[in-house]
């Protein structure tokens, strides 16, 4: 209700802390609806179906290069050394968005830096100048790369920064749940021809796997605050007056047992209608699940790049399953919960999130072996 097109709300004032300056307003942090609508119209063209199809070769080439680099980690060995897939996801996303946003290929390994924890500490205090002075080398290098690409086109630069920052977090989670899947059949059934074009898009279980991943570990798990405007708003029969801050956290919504039975169980089948199956998934339950699903927010302020994210995740997941055998490194449960952790973080096979508006996470640690395909 509070995120749909007709809701009498606007983004809350706290979004004003995100722009570096008054010239750094983007579709994401603009509070004024008129400014947002103008910017969003431009961005919609960049992320239209036609535009995405035209950039698909770039995404394919980056995913293929990523697969090649993973293959090098195996070399002549049967199994690779232990790999932190959160870091490898960072590299893939940075390379892809760097080429798509800036038409520039970056060969240096600067996709990940320890900037996020520092940002989380500094930003609430409004100390942007201190953050700039204390930035680690990896961040400084990234800033130089962006500014070199766009020295004069400030608005485009800021939109590109927003896309490249927000675009990383949705890609990491599916590695965790892929490598914890207990059913071997979830890793079978692909052929090389199915990794391209319409056949890939119609892979029902692949999409369900990705949706279930983002249900359990949404890229933005916290609340997306809205401020009620003049005239108030009625939510579930409750009148809320002007000026009040209201929000819904996607993590809480996605783990509501009234909407998602067994919410802490990874079950991609919940997204596929199959009333004959033992799970008995009805059209009504799938429709309800989709109605509450908001990994990219919802309504007019929903993420403009969600179709790009789906495309990249689908390609990366399909190609890594097609090219490699995968096993967990059982000496490490990085990214998972622990029985000794604080309450709420004790589920061993649940991917652990740290909230800094977007979610930061680490792991899982896995090993890869080359698949042998029959001609």
From TrEMBL:
The lineage of its organism: Eukaryota, Fungi, Dikarya, Ascomycota, Pezizomycotina. Its cofactor is heme. This is Isotrichodermin C-15 hydroxylase. Belongs to the cytochrome P450 family. Keywords: Heme, Iron, Metal-binding, Monooxygenase, Oxidoreductase. InterPro entries: Cyt_P450 (IPR001128), Cyt_P450_CS (IPR017972), Cyt_P450_E_grp-I (IPR002401), Cyt_P450_sf (IPR036396), Cytochrome_P450_monoxygenase (IPR050121). GO terms for molecular function: heme binding; iron ion binding; monooxygenase activity; oxidoreductase activity, acting on paired donors, with incorporation or reduction of molecular oxygen. Heme binds at residue 303. It holds the Pfam family p450. The keyword tRNA processing does not apply. PANTHER family: CYTOCHROME P450, CYTOCHROME P450 MONOOXYGENASE ATNE-RELATED. It comes from Fusarium oxysporum (strain Fo5176).
């Amino acid at each position: 209700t509070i995120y749909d097109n007709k809701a009498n709300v606007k983004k809350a004032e706290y979004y004003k802390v995100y722009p570096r300056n008054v010239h750094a307003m983007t579709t994401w942090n603009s509070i004024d609806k008129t400014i947002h609508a103008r910017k969003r119209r431009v961005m919609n063209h960049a992320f239209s179906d036609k535009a995405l199809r035209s950039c698909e070769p770039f995404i394919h080439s980056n995913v293929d290069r990523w697969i090649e680099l993973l293959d090098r980690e195996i070399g002549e060995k049967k199994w690779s050394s232990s790999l932190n897939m959160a870091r490898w996801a960072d590299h893939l996303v940075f390379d892809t968005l760097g080429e798509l946003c800036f038409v520039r290929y970056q060969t240096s390994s600067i996709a990940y830096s320890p900037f996020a924890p520092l940002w989380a500490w500094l930003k609430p205090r409004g100390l942007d100048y201190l953050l700039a002075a204390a930035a680690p080398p990896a961040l400084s290098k990234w800033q130089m790369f962006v500014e070199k690409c766009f020295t004069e086109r400030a608005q485009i630069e800021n939109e590109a920064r927003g896309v490249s920052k927000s675009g990383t977090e949705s890609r990491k989670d599916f590695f965790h749940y892929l490598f914890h899947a207990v059913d071997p059949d979830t890793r079978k059934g692909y052929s090389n021809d199915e990794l391209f074009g319409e056949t890939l898009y119609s892979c029902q279980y692949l999409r369900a796997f990705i949706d279930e991943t983002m249900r359990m570990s949404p890229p933005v798990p916290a609340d997306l605050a809205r401020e009620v405007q003049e005239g108030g708003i009625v939510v579930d029969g409750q009148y809320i007056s002007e000026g009040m801050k209201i929000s819904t956290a996607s993590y809480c919504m996605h783990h509501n047992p009234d909407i998602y039975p067994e919410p802490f169980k990874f079950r991609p089948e919940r997204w596929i209608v199959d009333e004959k199956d033992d799970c008995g998934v009805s059209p009504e339950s799938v429709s309800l699940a989709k109605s509450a699903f908001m990994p990219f927010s919802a309504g007019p302020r929903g993420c403009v790049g969600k179709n790009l994210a789906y495309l990249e995740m689908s390609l990366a997941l399909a190609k890594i399953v097609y090219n490699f055998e995968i096993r967990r490194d059982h000496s490490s449960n990085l990214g998972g919960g622990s029985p000794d952790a604080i309450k709420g973080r004790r589920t061993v096979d649940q991917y652990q999130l740290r909230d800094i508006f977007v979610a930061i996470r680490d792991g899982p640690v896995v090993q890869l072996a080359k698949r042998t395909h029959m001609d």
